[in-house]
Amino acid sequence: MKNKAKFAAVMVAVLAGVILFSQPVFAYIEGNTIVTEDAKIKAGITPGSVFYGLDKALDRVSLALTFGSSARAKTGLTIARERLMEVKVMVEANDTVAAGEAQRGHARALASVSASLDKLKGSELNTKREDVISLEKGMLEHESEIIAVNKWSKSDADAGQITFMLDAMQNSMADVRIQLFERKREIALEQIAAGKIQSETETEIIVREEGLIDLRKQSAAEEMKAAHGLVAYVKGDIDARLKAARSAGQVPREDVSAAAAAAQILLQADLKLGAASEAFADSEFEQAFELAHNARRLGETAQSLFAEELEAEAAVGAEAKADNAGAGVSAKAGESLSVSVGAGVDVSVNE
User: Fold this and answer.
1) 334, HSE (Cβ side, Cα atoms, 13 Å)
2) Which whole-number Å values give the CA distances from 300 to 153, 168, 253, 297, 333, in the listed order?
3) Residue 102 near residue 86, CB atoms below 8 Å
């Protein structure tokens, strides 16, 4: 639990420099409200209220009555932003249980966004391009909003739990953003194959709409910075914990499988970070973001795998020590018994 809290603290430090106003977005958080160019998204009814179930039901109705994949995705994103504000309110009230309920609602809202993106058609990129641009812009803004709440949220009792909760929300948002980028790329390739697009230049116009380049560049730079920080921390943490375990005699002196497996994963993370830097230099900011995000996920996987494997190996080592100690006791007991029986035989013979 101590290591988990330490890891959470480092993640906050890695991401703390990224605040809502650090990138050219047009939304900001004011109290418990997200203010965008054309709307104010408030926390509204929060978990714990007798009306919270009704609030969620109305959101589901709103989604059902929204037509068009891009429009439905935007509605789902608006609901996700509302859930983030609910998390903020509950964290400030030191109610991590209610915050967790709002976080699960956030995950469900993003799942609806993801489902809508799966149904996004090429025609919408052409006839409803503004909706798609607005959707991606909202996603970029929402990433910044989550980071801002993560930075501002303070709770001495459950700092680690809250940080991991908000990190999960940020990861989910990044996954949906990557999904949108990949879906647009798939549609562009489909249209090229169908002869609807005649050149790569036109493809680029569809895949990277004008007006979002600066947002994507800033987002990619932040994700790369966070990924580099996390991977460096995980490497240092693994090295320190392995040395401590060896010094305590909990694991063998030679390399353990936990460290070897984690090292392979971290090597993949380094390769992705290198590729992300190259993509960034080539102004392929969405690709750079995706590679950096994958590197960060690999770093988290290496951290988790190492902790689990090290614990398992320490348990095996402790069991082996116990068996050896038991064998030693049995050997001594057998030796005493043998001497006793021998003495008896000798006495019998003498008689």
Assistant:
1) 6
2) 22, 11, 25, 5, 50
3) yes
Helix (H, G, I), strand (E, B) or coil at 48: coil
Residues 6+ apart with CB under 8 A from 151: 12, 15, 16, 18, 19
As a whole number of angstroms, the distance between CA 306 and CA 148 comes to: 30
Q: Which residues contact 299 (CB under 8 A, 6 or more apart)?
A: 227, 230, 231, 234, 265, 266, 269
The whole-angstrom separation of Cα 33 and Cα 43 is 6
Ordered mean pLDDT values, 10 residues apiece, the chain (351 residues): 46 39 57 78 86 90 89 93 91 88 93 91 70 85 85 63 84 90 80 64 53 81 90 88 74 61 89 94 90 91 81 60 54 42 37 38
Domain limits of the chain?
A: 1-210, 212-351
120 by DSSP, 3-state: which? coil
Measured distance CA(344)–CA(340) in Å, rounded: 6
For residue 327, what pLDDT is reported?
52
Residue written as tokens 């936990």?
A: 258
